[in-house]
Amino acid sequence: MTSKNSKNAPPLSKFFEKPSEIEKYFNAAFNITGDPIFVKDEECRLLLVNDAFCKIFGVTRKEALGKTLAEKVTVKERQHFLAVDKKVLLTGDEILCEETLTILGAEEKTVLTKKNRFTDSQGKHFLVGIIHDISQRKQAELRVKSSRHVLELISRGKPLSEILHAIVKVVEQENPDMLCSVLLLDESQKHLIIGTAGGLPQFYNDAINGIEIGIGVGSCGTAAFTNKRVVVDDINCHPYWAPYKELAKEAGLGACWSEPIRSTTGTVLGTFAIYHHAPHQPTDADLLLIEQTASLASIAIEKKQAEEKLERAASVFTHAQEGIMITDANVKIIEINEAFTHITGYTLQDVQGKEPSILRSNRHSTEFYDEIWETIETQGHWRGEIWNQRKNGDIYPELVTINAVKNTTGNVKHYVSLSTDITPMKAYQGQLERIAHYDALTKLPNRVLLADRLSQATMQCERRNQSLAVAFMDLDGFKAINDTYGHNVGDELLIAVSQRMKEALREGDTLARIGGDEFIAVMVDLQKFEDTKQVLKRLLKAASDPVNVGDALMQVSASIGVTLYPHDNVDSDQLIRHADQAMYIAKQAGKNRFHLFDTAEDIALNTQRESIENVNIALQKDEFVLHYQPKVNMRTGEVIGAEALIRWQHRVNGLIPPLAFLPLIEGHVISLKLGEWVIDSALSQIHQWQKIGLDIPISVNISAYQLQQNNFTTRLAALLSAHPEVNPNRLELEILETSALHDTSLVSTTMNTCQELGVRFAIDDFGTGYSSLTYLKRLPAYLIKIDQSFVRDMLEDTDDLAIVQGVVGLANAFQRKVIAEGVESIEHGKALVKLGCELAQGYGIAKPMVAEKIPDWISKWQSENAWHLKVN
To answer: pLDDT band for position 690 (50/70/90)?
Structure first.
């Protein structure tokens, strides 16, 4: 098996001597996934790669094979890859490693690479590798890691300004097109002051610092006043920004989304804002980001407010929010404060004289506590997170700082620990992780969690040799309800319908909301498509059953598209896209139904798209040529013209006939470009022949699609103007696919306008269309062509002979000329002349030939005079 792009690569037989080994390799390498796959020899040179490998590196197989592609990655990556490759080839160990891949010096990807050694019957070693792109997963992990970093700053008691700056920095680094700011409410709770402003211009920050909140006071002032999110897609035309339009313009701002920063009780603490330079509508991911970041800011602000309260307390020890415990040098408890009692439930009488181990929860090992005391002894202090146990048995998380207090001689007098119950912070952390994986409205999995579950489900299918179904659901009629009754009612409806659909699924299945009124269900452990039908019917019923929202009775339905894996053997993203395509078909078919994705139809569409692209490339590379088939008068022997017939001179596959590519581009804009190329080339050829004394007309085929374009006459006039040396009456247009002409009146008008330019028309393949007689009557064509399917068998088939005779009679009756195609012998010619048809073309006269051969053929035809038929 050799790709056309790798014809210069060494044959596989050079490396694999037995066919069974080749088969074994291909079964192992290519029947897996669409992930990049490669094979290297003992020198780490590439022997075989798949399409996905070529795509990720931006090379063809020819450019990759026999090379290491060292120039495509950084020096550090090159050294790493080589070391791993050598290790696998030397030891035969399987290696699975996470790697950074820098493509073309710019695009950085994080990949998971699995490498194995394969040994053939001759003892030669080969390296087989599979690459899986995990960049998106790493980005999601980075966001969670960034959030944890901010939480760590909060827990370590860093200044509020530093924490807020870190929050803004995380957002701006992960989203270079965004600018952020945090605005806090002042003590009066009526004005916004700058907390941190990221990359915003200083003059802009100065202008909004101290602004009074209220409806219409920009995005942030309105959000703080109403305690609701405010999304302004276009600052230039939004009434909230009318007083600040010039300021925003000077700062280069086009959009602003503001989220209130709320305390745990719901009180507004300030606003978090995201700006864009140009008008921009937020995606679901953007809204999730602003909500998550505002939650982080609220944690920091509340923590800061708590610290400020402590600073105002009369006695740090008595009134501290942190639990304080003091021990003697022998680590026996001698004092605690009220906060310690509040946190743990232990009074001083309970713990005095005892060791702090009374709080241990048994969640940590002995080694953990040994490391704590080792750190205290060597550094004098320790800070970290511990799970302790209250007096009532509840286990809770604490952030603890332990300091050794020494006397002037350097000996420990006391140990002092400050502990903070971080149960709320842990709850916030869990909330953040839930925000990252679940839809805020319906509490269903979101896109991120769906992608993870779908990936795991596909792997499970492979292991168990089972199938799964991906169902893409869109609610019919939801938008009308949302527009009529408002978003609050729409949200209530979504919650109710989503809960019903979730209950309609089986245990182990997943229902996710991916935005708006769109849901995706993943159904696992299937043997065949019929296994899903009952579930799909339940989903349709769950969506279409009426829902009471307040005093109103609402009803929607669902259009569902379904695809099956591994029958539809594509990756997770493509499975969702295929289900989405099938959903649109269900919606177009009348809604409230499901439709199964047709893989064969998709392959056909992909083939058509590929054909269109290939034709477009061939047109750009000037790979098309015209061959010409002479037309003659069989009675006089006169050559009356030639028909231009397109061919594709493919650089690899040779000469390709028109039926191999024209049907695939029918009705597409590329067919118009190709049709105009044919007309232009024919006009050029007429001029070339005229320069050597040959003056014959050329007929060109045009499709019904091309003829019915609104600008056909204008385009034809432009082509004729580009060849002023050619008389337009030397160009003849043969109309194909007459049955596809929709408006004969409009077509007739177009033809009359073209005839005024001097161009003549013929009707091709006459007799095959369902309304040929109508066209003969209404269309101003001077010539009709008898289809070759009737001419070819007219000598043996009386029905075909009768049709030919009838067409000739119609032509005479309507005062049109008639020409027969498909004339293969003198006997055909004699029969046609007897019927009154003198004009003909066909293999019996001449096959289509290149333009250079036409003059010589005409001279021989005229001299031989073989077809001057005389009929008694």
So the answer is: very high
- C-alpha span between 659 and 662 (Å, rounded): 6
- By residue count, the chain amounts to 872
pLDDT tens digits for 580-613?
999 998 998 899 999 998 877 766 677 778 888 8
| Neighbouring C-beta atoms of residue 403, cutoff 10 Å | 15
User: Is-contact 489 552, C-beta < 8 A?
Assistant: yes
CA distance 126 to 115: 10
DSSP output for 632-668 = EETTT--EEEEEEEEEEEETTTEEE-GGGTTGGGTTS
Helix (H) or strand (E) holding 467: strand 467-476
| Lowest-pLDDT range of 358-367, 800-809, 856-865 | 856-865
Measured CA to CA in angstroms, residue 209 lies from 193, 243, 418 at distances of: 5, 15, 37
**SS3 of residue 494 by DSSP:** helix
Please give the torsion angle defined by the CA atoms of residues 338, 340, 345 and 348, in that order, rounded to the nearest 10 degrees. Answer: -70
In order of their start, the domains of the chain are 4-133 (3.30.450.20), 139-312 (3.30.450.40), 316-427 (3.30.450.20), 438-597 (3.30.70.270), 610-864 (3.20.20.450)
Whole-model pTM: value is 0.42
> Two tokens at 397?
């998380």
Q: How far is the C-alpha of 606 from the C-alpha of 610, rounded, in Å? A: 6
Q: What's the mean per-residue pLDDT of the chain?
A: 86
Residue 331 CA to residue 373 CA, distance in Å, equals: 11
Q: Are 501 and 543 in contact (CB under 8 A)?
A: yes
Strand partners of residue 471: 521, 562
CB 35, CB 109: distance < 8 Å: no
Q: Residue 119 corresponds to which amino acid? A: T
- Say if CB 339 and CB 322 are below 8 A apart: yes
Task: Please state whether beta strands 817-821 and 783-786 pair in parallel, antiparallel, or not at all (unpaired).
Answer: parallel
**Alpha helices (H) in 92-242, listed in sequence order:** 135-155, 160-174, 202-208, 218-226
Lowest-confidence region among 264-273, 602-611, 711-720, 820-829: 602-611
Q: What is the DSSP string of 66-86?
A: TS--GGGS-HHHHHHHHHHHH
DSSP 271-331: EEEEEESS-----HHHHHHHHHHHHHHHHHHHHHHHHHHHHHSS-HHHH-SSEEEEEETT-
Alpha carbons within 13 angstroms on the beta-carbon side of residue 131 total 22
Q: Cis omega (within 30 of 0) on the bond before 566? A: yes
Nearest-angstrom CA–CA distance, 324 and 346: 12
DSSP-based three-state secondary structure for 700: strand
Helix (H) or strand (E) holding 34: none
H or E, element range at 199 = none
CB 623 within 8 A of CB 649: yes
Tell me the per-residue pLDDT of 336-394, one tens digit each, with 9 for 90 and over.
888 899 999 999 999 999 999 999 998 899 999 999 999 999 999 999 999 999 999 99
Cα 275 to Cα 170, 175, 239, 290: the distances in Å are 15, 11, 17, 11
Reading phi first (left if > 0) and then psi (alpha if -120 to 50, else beta), residue 758 is in left
Per the DSSP assignment, residues forming a β-bridge with 118 are 126
What is the per-residue pLDDT for 191? 94
AA letter at 591: K
According to DSSP, residue 356 is labeled G
> Residue 245 is encoded by which pair of tokens?
């339009």
User: Which of 154-158, 480-484, 623-627 has the least mean pLDDT?
Assistant: 154-158
**What is the spatial distance between Cα 764 and Cα 846, in angstroms, rounded to a whole number?**
19
pLDDT of 161 reads: 83
pLDDT of 104 higher than 60: no
User: Which amino acid makes up residue 869?
Assistant: L
How many other C-beta atoms lie within 10 A of the C-beta of residue 630? Answer: 22
Please name which of 77, 610, 50 lies closest in space to residue 59, comparing C-alpha atoms: 50
Name the amino acid, one letter, at 662: L
